[in-house]
Structures are given as C-alpha cells and as structure tokens.
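Entry 12.
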Amino acid sequence: MKEKDLKLVVKEKYGKIASQSSLLNPSSCCGTSGCCDDLEFSMIGDEYALVPGHNPDADLGLGCGLPTEYASINQGDSVLDLGSGAGNDCFVARSIVGENGKVTGLDFTDEMIQKAKLNLAKTKFTNIEFVLGDIENMPFLENTFDVVISNCVLNLVPDKVKAFSEIYRVLKPGGHFCISDVVLSGKLLEAVRQAAEMYAGCVAGASQKPDYLKLIQKTGFSQIKIHKEKLISVPDNILLKYISTEELNDLKSKGTGIFSITVSAAKL
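Predicted 3D structure (tokens):
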C-alpha cells in the first residue's frame, strides 16, 4: 500500500469506530469479543476506571497504555494529545493541568473530532479544544506545547520521521513527550504486515523496537526512557487468517512478538 492509501484505510476504519457507542460495548463490532468482523482484535490498554479525569463517554478502548501516568504533566502546562480520538486522554490531562493549563487534541478523522466535541460540550471545561489535522503536518506554531502525549497512534502514521520531527517542532525547548505505542520484536511475515485490517488494528504499522528508539534519537530527542513494556498476545485464530499453522508455530519458536511500550523523551 502507498502512504496515501494507508491513511485512507485508517481514516475510514476509525471513522466507523467513532460512529459506534463504544468499543467496550459487547454488541459493537469491536466489542469484548476481540475482533471486528473477525479480522481485527482490539488492544485495549491499561484500565482507566480509577484514573482522575477519566470520561467513560470518551473511552473507546483504543489505547495500548496510559501515557499520562508517566508524562510528568504539571499544573498550568499546555498539553497536546496526538490522535486524540473521542478525547479520553485529553480529559485525563485536563484533570492534571487544572484551570490554568490547556489541552489540545489533534485527530485527522472528522467523526472522531465531532464525537470529542460532543463529549466536551457535556462538561464546563473551557481549556480543552479539539483540532482537525494531520500528525505529519501539524497546524501549530513551533515551540507551542510543554508536553505531547499519544496513545497507540504513532504506529499508524506512515511517515514516522515526519511525525517525530513535528513533535520536536511544536514542543517548547525543555518540553517532552510521553507516548504509548506498539512495537515489534522480530520480523512479522509480510502476509500479516500487508493486511490492511491488521494495519488499522495497530499491528502491521508498528516498527521494530530498536528502530523506533533510534528514530526518536535521530530526530533530536534526548533522555529517552521506556517506562513500561508488555507483551500483546494476538489470538491464534486471528493470525491463522493470514498465515499457516506451520508458519504460526515457526513464529512462536523464534520469539517474535508484539509489545506495547510507553516511552518518553525530551527536547533540550
């Protein structure tokens, strides 16, 4: 797939998700059954229920971590959430920055922006905004934000060099990011990597972990730290739609795996 086509796949997929009541609803396409039309599994991240600021209406279960937990957000900070979806992490961040801070959510799916704005309208918050835009070409001035967060989104961006370069550009000097994302250990078979449904499900768009960390460093960031890492178990019945039983056994014997990591780095 070309980058343009991949973006269209992701935009269409997440547009449909936004029209559902919640991924956590068992009756929805991506409910607790774990797959969308038997083609995609949901990698629901860490539990948000007890997190201050958690907004159930904004929680679609699309994350693979809890970046705000390690983002060192302070009261009064200006925070940017990339791929903000229905706004869950923005509401969590707002509970930390308080009334004197500001939280901006960026998403390139119209339906998600609309859903986030509806969720915002139910609150009395005046310091959260949701902006339609592309992570590879953000509609913000340089040196704007104290902290950038993102939850299981950067791996969906075709040009990760542009994405991290843009993060570096919009962060203030001394600012930092904290991102939960999906990375690989070992090489996935091309049959799996090229599957559009798996790509939109946060797997095939993932980079090798060493490459991911090296890209962050090459972009100019320092103080790179992995705060949390966990194996994501992909159901065999999902993988067997793309590969044979023999290939699956070989995959397991080589220790190839999919991991969620929460990583931070600073712009000095």
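Annotation: The domain at 3-266 is CATH 3.40.50.150 (Rossmann fold). The longest helix spans residues 3-18.
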